[in-house]
Amino acid sequence: MKFRILKPFYLNNLLQGCMVIFLILSFTTLASQSSKRDTLLSEIEEIRNSSNFNSKDTLYIHNLIALAYEYRFHNLDSLYTLSQKNLALSKKAEYTNGEISSYHSMGGYYSDKGKIDQAIIYFNKAYKLAEKYENNFLKVRTLNDLAKEYGYKGDYSKSLKWYLEAMEIAEKHNYKNSISIINDNIAHLYLEQKDFQQAMVFLQKSKAIHEEVGNPVFLAETLSNIASTYADMNELDYAMYNINISIATFEKEKILEWLAYCYEIKGKIYLKKNKNTWALYWYKQSELLHQEIEDDRGKIDLLNGMTEAYLNLKKDSIAEEYAFNAFNLSKKIGLRSGIKNSTQNLSKIFKIKKDFEKSLWYHELYQTTYESLSAISNEKALNMLKTRVEYDQQKQLLIVENEKALAKQKIYIYIFIIILFIFAIITFIVHRNQQEQKKLNQELRNKKADLEQKQAYLNELNQTKNKLFSIIGHDLRGPIGAFQGLLKLFKEGEMTKDEFLNFVPKLKVDIDTISFTLNNLLSWGQTQMNGSITRHSITNLDSIVEENIALLSEIAEAKSITLINRIEPNCQVWSDPNQIDIIIRNLLSNALKFTPNNGKIIIGAIQKIKTCEIYVKDNGLGMSEEIIGKLFEKDSNHTTYGTNDEKGTGLGLSLCKEMVEKNNGKIWVHSALGRGSSFYFTIPRIQKQYKESA
Questions:
Q1: What is the maximal distance between C-alpha atoms in the chain?
Q2: Among 247, 256, 251, 332, which residue's Cα sits nearest to residue 290?
Q3: Other C-beta atoms lying within 10 Å of the C-beta of residue 466
Q4: What share of the chain is helix, strand, coil (3-state, %, to 5)?
Q5: Under 8 Å between Cβ of 222 and 210
Q6: What angle do CA 128, 87, 41 make, to 5 degrees?
Q7: ∠ CA(112), CA(113), CA(114), 5° rounding?
Q8: pLDDT tens track for 612-631
Q9: How far is it, in rounded angstroms, from Cα 591 to Cα 595?
Q10: CB 600 within 8 A of CB 561
Q11: How far apart are the C-alpha atoms of 636 and 307, rounded to whole Å?
């Protein structure tokens, strides 16, 4: 039977959906797996080569973590190297989920290497972080990992204890997939005790959950474990039925490590039917897949099964080779059940070869291992039962204590109600004498509050008026006055037509600036006067971005700046399209203003579960921490000249912040002097409830 693990989601905690990373591989050429790794490597290289690359970028770290998981079961050395790097980057960036995932992948590396104690250390670190930050799903995941490792170690009592704690948290928060996986793994403990009936109880619980949830891959994992259990029970028809369903699913989804396991189980079924040729056929299918994965525990059962099949076919030399491979691999990772089976087979082989000395040596080793496992098995069974009883007793004791505390609390409540009733009578008597006075005081307070509210409103209006007049006086009167002076010179003949025409490009830039400033002033003024109403609807981001790129293309061409749109055509959000248009235009205009000639500006979006994160990145001048601190202040009028002395009102980012928040989003910036700036804002994606309200 194969243990099941909980794997992490990325970029969206989803929470109960758990961002599960399966190693999706092509059945023969592994093209799908290579494609996934190549895509991740390409994205990582693109981020690293960007002009404003920052190793603390969580998207960069996320892609590295995803790449590490792609190497699980395929290249453990690469998994280890990437996990070490990811851990260092996550700590530096204070990226908690990255730290937990890195510890988890390190634990997986040591587990697959058979170094159980090291694996437990790293899974413990992941659990402590999840517990510290009260992430219940990650707590369940790491408890399951810890329990699994203690099961490998043979400490079934502690293993069951961790499984039960994980189960309690999962049931409390209704993590159905987690509950099913824990049920599968608890069943594994009972199978080690040959308690097939109890194991099947847990497996059937897991199956029922998957049939309710409707996840075919998870259901196939459980069905393959059910098939293995039926095979051990010699219920071979039931075993074959379940394994065929699992194989069909894993072949369709191309999940290689589970497919190798299913082929091995099908071989075991045919071996028990004494159909050795068919057994070897399916064992060899599994063996081919094991050439592409690193799953030593699964491979040991395969090698022992092939040994038995070749022995039955009287191919002793081949059987001997597979038995030695199983024996050496079992010693390497310390799997005593594998040593027991392989030494039993080797004893038979050397007895057939009439090498009785070696046969006796392997038989004695088999007998020693068998007796050790049997003794430990009995102790494990008692410990498991003791742990279960202690756990149930602790649970029952907690219930009794809670009931006592509740009864005591009820007494306190009754006393409090009596005191409250007496106090109410006294209060009523006092209230009758002071009622008129309180009415007068209340009226006075109401009038004072009204006056304060009106005063605050008038102060806000006055500040808005002052800011408008300030901007009009400094940023509009200057260009308009220059335009008037130029027209006067031309009209009075002091400037020739050719000279006037030479000023036309400059005039166009000034007029575009005045128009842009007026639009921002009108939009900002409306928001300040409570005249701007946000009307949500389905908004297509790509069309808005394309329109703004076309609108600003002339400015970009004048500075030889490349505008890159990475918004996907189907990227839709729930927002006011006019306000999103103003936000994007201001961010692109700012980026053009502060990007030098021959620069590059990228606008794109990351679609998350509930939100869409839009970013505008440039390789321009960048900003200091002091300037960043003033950018989004409501009353700030901070403005800076661009790379070609472009002038702004300082209103754009303040307006962007107000409109982003009106659309239930957030806005922030990452920047450093000389390394460009990256502006980010989030907008809710289209959800079912939004569609209904629309």
A1: 123
A2: 256
A3: 10
A4: 70, 5, 20
A5: yes
A6: 135
A7: 90
A8: 999 999 998 888 888 888 87
A9: 6
A10: yes
A11: 79
Neighbouring CB atoms inside 10 A of 457's CB total 11
The structure tokens 């049939």 sit at 211
Cα angle 42, 45, 49 (rounded to 5 degrees) comes to: 140
- In this prediction, residue 693 carries a pLDDT of 42
User: Token digits for 345?
Assistant: 């087979």
H or E segment and range at residue 103: helix 96-112
Q: Residue 481: pLDDT band by 50, 70, 90 thresholds?
A: low
Q: Taking each helix axis from N to C terminus, what angle separates 236-253 and 216-232, rounded to the nearest 10 degrees?
A: 150
pLDDT at 421: 84
Q: Is 27 exposed, middle or buried (0-12, 13-18, 19+ CB in 10 A)?
A: middle
Model-level pTM? 0.51
Tokens standing for residue 35: 């494609």
Nearest C-alpha neighbor of 651 from the set 429, 486, 498, 470 = 470
* SS3 at position 204: helix
Rounded Cα distance between 227 and 330, Å, is 24
Alpha helices for 535-649 (secondary structure H)? 541-558, 577-594, 625-630
Of residues 313, 286, 291, the one with CA closest to residue 301: 286
- Cβ–Cβ < 8 Å for 552, 592: yes
Contact present, 564 and 600 (Cβ < 8 Å): yes
Q: Token pair for residue 215?
A: 């996840």
Q: What is the pLDDT of residue 4?
A: 64
The amino acid sitting at 379 is E
Instruction: Evaluate whether 29 touches 258 at the Cβ level (below 8 Å).
Output: no
Q: How many other CB atoms are found less than 10 A from the CB of residue 89?
A: 21
Q: What is the rounded CA–CA span in Å between residue 391 and residue 165?
A: 9
Question: In angstroms, how far is CA 363 from the centroid of its own chain?
Answer: 51
CA torsion through residues 543, 517, 661, 673, sign: positive
Model confidence over 226-259: pLDDT tens digits? 999 999 999 999 999 999 999 999 998 888 889 9
pLDDT tens for residues 31-46? Answer: 445 567 778 888 888 8
Confidence of residue 473 (pLDDT cuts 50, 70, 90): very low
Which tokens sit at 507? 């005039």
| The pLDDT value given to residue 304 | 92
d(CA 126, CA 98): 10
